[in-house]
Amino acid sequence: MIPYATPLFFGVVGYAAVPLLLLGLRGRLRGTAILVVSLALTALQLGWNGELASGVGGLALQLAVVVAYPALRRRAVRGAHWGAIALVLLPLVVTRLTGVTSLTSPFGFLGISYVTFRALDVVFGIKDGNIKEIDSAALVAYLLFFPTLSSGPIDRYRRFAADFRRTLTRDAYVDLLESAVPLLIRGMLYKFVLAALVKEQLLDRLNDRGDLLGVGGYMYAYTAFLFLDFAGYSAMAVALSRLFGISTPQNFDRPFVATNIVEFWNRWHMSLSTWFRDHVYMRIVLAAKRGKWFSDRHLPSYLALTVSFGLMGVWHGWAWHFVVYGIYHALLQIGHSLFTRWNATHRVWGEGPGWRFLGRFLTTHAFCFGLLLFSGRLF
């Protein structure tokens, strides 16, 4: 059972979610029920896909590390922070480096990357002092929250735990359900109708064409398909989360109205881009400034952008086109920064509707070309 892949998924999940719906409508939905249903559905998904043993191995390691980490910090164990990061990353790295499937790996399973990012969020939060204590039930539910187990968005522990600990009133739960309905409808429309049409009518037909028009058409079709598919199942994941009583944040905010590449990444896969901003980009910038690594005050940002987007590319896999995709976006971000500072003096780029239209046009095409790199189709 692959989440959000077919409407059948909701038929299976619907039966398990009935207790949550009834409890919510009675104003008695609590974290315990959310945890029990998430664990049951997670076991069902892993067992259905033949990943139960491998899933338990990877999840057990990450859970053990996160639980043990606060005690190691209190005892000032040397290297505890980097050791925790390394162990949390181990299942994902093994899967990515070896290219093995979840069926042949002791750690890999569908959703390992999203679980890893959530586990790292807890480790970083403890290190920064933002997470003072760990609620064991909330932690397990957070790592194994079924609606987002193997798909975005990537929630944060502190926000999730606050939702998990509260008992929703009936009115609050009904409000969540009402907001979930349009998200569910939009997600199904995007993924099961529009994305399927784009794939069948355009993408598949252009896949084997090697001429310029074929490759260019494939680039636009692939961008449309990826957005509709990704935004579709993200919307469905948010909708299902609300049925569970959890207000998982949105993942997309009209990215193609962005007038520059920085704004675009503030609208596209927002949970991932903000995760990298907070946990990678800002840490490198602060470390570089504290350590006075560079005389130029802009170089820490450029280094952090290169590492952040490079890692984002590798997160999708070790194939070279994923790495090129990440570096390409780092260069776009750096180029935007350089041009913005240059334009502040020379004032070549103006303001107004015409400039905004041109900005959207250039940004969209730059992103589309990036997805062509990402697809590996260009080469």
Q: TL;DR of this structure?
A:
By secondary structure, this protein is an all-alpha fold.
Written account of the structure:
The protein is an all-alpha fold. It folds into three domains: 30-165, no CATH class; 179-250; 256-375, no CATH class. The chain has helices at 8-25, 31-48, 52-74, 80-98, 112-128, 136-143, 157-165, 170-206, 212-243, 261-265, 270-291, 299-315, 320-346, 353-375. The longest helix has 37 residues, at 170-206. The model has no long low-confidence stretch (mean pLDDT 90).
What would the keywords be for this entry?
mainly alpha; 14 helices; 73% helix; 3 domains; 379 residues
Proportion of strand residues: under 5%
Helicity, as a percent range: over 70%
Mean pLDDT score:
90
List the total number of helices. Answer: 14
Computed CA radius of gyration, to the nearest angstrom? 22 Å
Structural class: mainly alpha
Q: Report the biggest beta sheet as strand number plus sense, adding barrel if it closes.
A: none
- Succession of helices and strands: HHHHHHHHHHHHHH
Q: How many domain units? A: 3
Distance between the termini: 33 Å
Which regions have little confidence, pLDDT < 50, spanning 5+ residues?
none
The gross shape turns out to be: globular
Give the beta-strand count: 0
